[in-house]
Amino acid sequence: MERDIQNFLAELASKAPVPGGGGAAALCGALGIALGNMVGNLTVGKRKYAAVEEEMRALNGRAERLCGEFLALIDADAEAFEPLSRAYAIPKDAPERGEVMERALLRAAGPPMEIMRRCAEALELIGEYAAKGSALAVSDAGCAAALCLAAMRAAALNVLINTKGMADREAAGRLNSEVLSLLAEYGGTAEEIYENITGRLS
Predict the structure, then answer these.
(1) What architecture (CATH level 2) is domain 19-201?
(2) What is the spatial distance between Cα 19 and Cα 8, in angstroms, rounded to a whole number?
(3) pLDDT tens-digit profile of 74-108?
(4) pTM confidence score
(5) What is the domain partition of the chain in residue ranges?
(6) The dihedral of CA 30, 36, 42, 44: what is its sign?
(7) Rounded CA gap, 53 and 132, in Å?
(8) Is 178 buried (19+), middle (13-18) or exposed (0-12) by CB count in 10 A?
(9) For a designed S-S bond to 158, which of 112, 115, 173, 202 qualifies (C-beta 3.0 to 4.6 A apart)?
């Protein structure tokens, strides 16, 4: 993704079909894990945290990779939506419409599903940053958890709107089941991180 944030927001606000909710979710995830990475970078090199320095360095490497993956998913989401946008333009009585639409819906559900999976990994890392990183940056770890949870929830809606239209209910059910499972598990993880940090700051 080679665009500045001002241009991205202008495109997001416009009538253009992309970027949309999936791209916004991916950007939100990138912001979240970047904040987690900041906590790690503020911890490394501090004598007080020498015992966790190597762990922080390893977390930072994973966080940097995740941030790049989130940014790539902005473009992946836009690319996956294009065929669906074209499919909606096919006349409803055209014999090929159903098959084309089914393929397009399944493809469009892919990137937001990947965004959810990356958010799950990001929240695991953020939990480590919150527990072991610099206490001076603990609020940033809480912000990171909140952003990644928002990203996951936003991505979930972008999966569900596509599975709702799929004729293959078995395939749709598998995706829906993963969506609900990730929300249940990692929604709890994010809330726990956030509430713990709120308690520490109160």
Answers:
(1) Up-down Bundle (1.20)
(2) 8
(3) 999 999 999 999 998 899 899 999 999 999 999 99
(4) 0.94
(5) 19-201
(6) negative
(7) 10
(8) middle
(9) 112
